[in-house]
Write a structure and sequence with these properties.
4-stranded mixed sheet, alpha/beta, elongated, 60s Ribosomal Protein L30, Chain: A, 13 helices, Alpha/beta knot, 271 residues, single chain
């Protein structure tokens, strides 16, 4: 059992909470039973190292079984070691080191989930909050989106807070990183998608839905949490759309607004 929290191996894993170490190694940190289970189920070939406390492995026997079937060795580690490796205070007994696996833009748009062509894609421009990014990826997965595309001005996809917020959805759909917005928009249009931009001054979402526009293959473009999309970026979209606020709230959280837009589109496309 790995029991020394100051061992070099432990320090190397812990460093993956830092962007520099992730960039240098091409690895990232995965914490907790849910995320580890999804990695083993969907992309086991990416798992480089897997650590667990004996107690956690006894509690989550399904993870132990999946690891065996996937040919991934589990190394026992003490609670102190797991805590030293983790980015969180309560890592729940599991830590994995995983290869980064960004998808090329042309591959992400090559095949949709239900057909040969994508019908729902998310483009994120300058989204900086890790929790927002992770939540949007999770919602995109839930709504059946075919891909998520991040411009180079967005937060690092492999930031531990982003990874935790996806709750495993990171392994379910293609995520493209570090592209220019113009390139992303050109690619989704070539793939046959219209571009709708989330903007508080746009057309009201209910009226856009009633027009039948949401039925078509759609790429949603969302911008920075504080500033939204620039005038130049908005001009590149086909239509700007606002989620109406009926109460007294000053604004809506980006991830919440994106959730409403994505699910309205998913409902319309499946009607």
């Amino acid at each position: 059992m790995l029991d020394n929290p100051r061992a070099d191996r432990v320090k190397a894993v812990a460093k993956l909470s830092q962007k520099g170490a992730r960039s240098e190694t091409g690895l990232f940190l995965l914490e907790g039973p849910q995320a580890v289970a999804e990695a083993l189920a969907y992309r086991p070939e990416l798992v480089v190292e897997l650590y667990a406390t004996p107690t956690a492995l006894e509690r989550y026997t399904d993870i132990a079984e999946t690891a065996v079937l996937a040919g991934v060795d589990v190394e026992f580690a003490s609670e102190r070691v797991i805590e030293a490796m983790a980015d969180t205070v309560t890592p729940q007994g599991f830590i994995a080191v995983v290869h980064q696996f960004p998808t090329a833009l042309k591959h992400a748009l090559g095949t949709g989930r239900a057909s040969d062509e994508p019908r729902l894609v998310v483009i994120l421009e300058e989204v900086r909050d890790p929790g927002n990014l992770g939540t949007i990826i999770r919602v995109a997965d839930s709504a059946g989106a075919d891909a998520v595309i991040l411009t180079g001005r967005s937060v690092d996809l492999y930031n531990p807070k982003v990874v935790r917020s996806t709750t495993g959805s990171l392994f379910h759909l293609p995520v493209v990183i570090d592209v220019e917005l113009d390139s992303a928009l050109d690619a989704v249009r070539v793939a046959g998608l219209q571009v709708l931009a989330g903007d508080m001054h746009g057309d009201a979402l209910p009226s856009v839905r009633e027009s039948g526009r949401l039925n078509a293959p759609t790429a949603w473009l969302f911008g920075n949490e504080a500033r939204g999309l620039s005038a130049e970026s908005l001009a590149l979209a086909d239509v700007s759309v606002a989620v109406p606020i009926y109460g007294d709230a000053e604004s809506m959280n980006l991830a919440t607004a994106a959730s409403v837009c994505l699910y309205e589109t998913a409902f319309a496309q499946r009607a």
